[in-house]
Specification:
heterotrimer, A mainly alpha, B alpha+beta, C mainly alpha, B: alpha+beta, five-stranded antiparallel β-sheet, four-stranded antiparallel β-sheet, 2 helices, 23% helix, elongated, C: mainly alpha, two-stranded antiparallel ribbon, 2 strands, 10% strand
């Protein structure tokens, strides 16, 4: 006797197997479980709520269409995240918000913020509540350019290596390194509570 | 003799059909060229006068085929083409369509977007189906160029 | 090596992106260089703070509403031809030839061999016989809905 799948308690891989056989309800449960994460990834890259909702929706549709390509090498959530990241990168390139080589190359080469900045202890976050810290990080991320934010998101949150980031962003490894360095130092400054005006002096 | 007469009659009838078919091909093809915009949003108030409702029968077809909630008619032009009389219709500042009925090979349709040819294709004559050339527009909307036989 | 290159190597050392030999060199430099050590610590702390505190966001739409849009889009997409599966490279060479062969087969079947006149009105659809040319960065999908009497050519920019 086959037992019906209890969607709310089933594991992801059980839901994926059912969805691969055409079970839409199983797929809906997967959407419900991971929609916030997928949306958050889209928002972290696009910084626009409407666009992030649209692209995460599109990612889910593509996920359904490509479900049979999911082999289980990575978790389902990771697989879906890769889909939404690619959609976001396409969108950023289409809208010319991302350029292959660094628009801030001059700034990165001469040092810009990072050159003028002393080495910081970015952890005045000690004592901050976790939620407050996250909000601070979110605000700081919003102050980066698309290129710098994207490389930071892909490296720190997605844990992709330089080579893969370079491939996704269509730039050289050297550019990835420069952008990541600049982004990290700027984040350190922002988290250390320096005012933006001071940074731009 | 009877056999020869029958064959001659058959050839005559066949030729008559061919001529009438050829005449059909040379005959005028009337159609409406309609530019439609598809969106999930309601009609923008500032575009109240510019956007009209799509006729119900066409709207019904759109809803069955495409995913958007609402469809609005941007422009509509009635035209006809004959062999040797191509038509160049301007549907909007950025959208033009050229239609040329050729002698034997059907209808050449060329879509021009922002002064660049975006699509060129041949379609059979006479146009039996509604022909829709379409693509994505910004903000998850879509444009549709409809050639509807009249 | 200039200072900037060294700084980038410190970062790469932190991220385990260096070869073992280079990692040893940079590690030695960091331990003997106070500025290098401070930079390494700053990058390390920033990385850890970010990795442990990624902002948590909630999708600003209800479960039902969001799902209903996805469901609708899936249904609409399923009315269009599916995304083609990746093809082996050699099929791309054969495809144009196959198209030409198919076209000739179709034309041959339509030609009235007596008069040589091609009666296109016998073809049952308005699909393009072939696309003459289009913009190089535009791809097309053509499909026909017999029920609706509609031929759609969907143009995508690449």
């Amino acid at each position: 006797m086959t037992s019906k799948l209890n969607y709310s308690t089933a594991k992801d891989d059980e839901l994926v197997k059912a969805a691969q056989k055409g079970d839409m309800a199983a797929f809906e449960e997967l959407v419900a479980r991971h929609r916030d994460k997928i949306y958050a990834r889209a928002f972290s890259m696009l910084r626009n709520e409407d666009e992030a909702v649209d692209l995460s929706q599109e990612a889910w549709v593509k996920g359904w269409q490509r479900l049979n390509q999911f082999q289980g090498d990575a978790s389902f959530a990771t697989w879906m995240t890769r889909i939404v990241i690619n959609l976001c990168l396409d969108q950023l390139r289409k809208n010319k918000r991302i350029k292959s080589e660094s628009i801030d190359e001059m700034n990165e080469e001469t040092g810009g913020v990072e050159r003028q900045m002393p080495i910081l202890n970015p952890n005045p976050t000690e004592g901050l509540e976790r939620e407050e810290l996250r909000q601070r990080i979110d605000k700081a991320l919003a102050q980066l350019s698309y290129e710098h934010r994207t490389v930071l998101v892909l490296h720190e949150f997605e844990e992709l290596e330089y080579k893969l980031i370079a491939k996704r962003m269509g730039c050289s490894i050297g550019t990835v390194m420069s952008r990541l360095f600049y982004a990290r130092r700027k984040m350190a400054a922002l988290l250390a509570g320096l005012k933006r005006e001071e940074l731009e002096k | 003799m009877q056999l020869v007469r029958n064959w001659a009659l058959l050839v005559l009838v066949a030729t008559a059909f061919q001529l009438s078919a050829a005449d059909d091909a040379k005959a005028e093809q009337k159609f409406a060229a309609i530019l439609i915009w598809g969106t999930d949003d309601e009609k923008p108030t500032e575009k109240e006068k510019d956007l009209k409702d799509v006729d119900p029968a066409l709207k019904e077809k759109f809803k069955k085929i495409f995913k958007w909630k609402n469809y609005f008619e941007v422009t509509r032009t009635n035209a006809s083409v004959k062999v040797g009389e191509p038509k160049h219709l301007k549907l909007s500042k950025k959208c033009e369509v050229k239609i040329n009925q050729t002698e034997k090979e059907g209808m050449d349709v060329e879509l021009i977007g922002e002064n660049k040819t975006v699509y060129k294709g041949k379609h059979s004559m006479p146009l039996k189906d509604i022909l829709i050339l379409a693509g994505d527009d910004k903000n998850a909307t879509a444009w549709f160029v409809v050639l509807k036989p009249e | 090596m200039n200072t900037r290159d060294m700084h980038l190597k410190v970062q790469a050392y932190l991220d385990n992106e260096l070869s073992p030999a280079e990692a040893r060199k940079v590690g030695t430099w960091i331990s003997s260089n106070p500025e290098g050590r401070d930079l390494f610590n700053e990058l390390k702390e920033t990385r850890e703070i970010l990795m442990q505190n990624e902002p948590v966001l909630k999708l600003p739409e209800s479960r039902d509403f969001f799902w209903s849009k996805i469901e609708r889009e899936i249904a609409a997409a399923e009315r269009l031809p599916a995304e083609p599966e990746p093809r082996p490279w050699w099929t791309r060479l054969l495809a144009p030839l196959a198209g030409t062969v198919a076209l000739f087969a179709l034309l041959f079947s339509l030609v009235d061999r007596g008069s040589g006149h091609m009666d296109l009105s016998q073809s049952h659809d308005a699909a393009p016989l072939h696309q003459l040319e289009g913009a190089p960065d535009v791809s097309t999908i053509t499909f026909r809905s017999e029920a609706e009497g509609v031929t759609v050519v969907w143009l995508s920019t690449q």
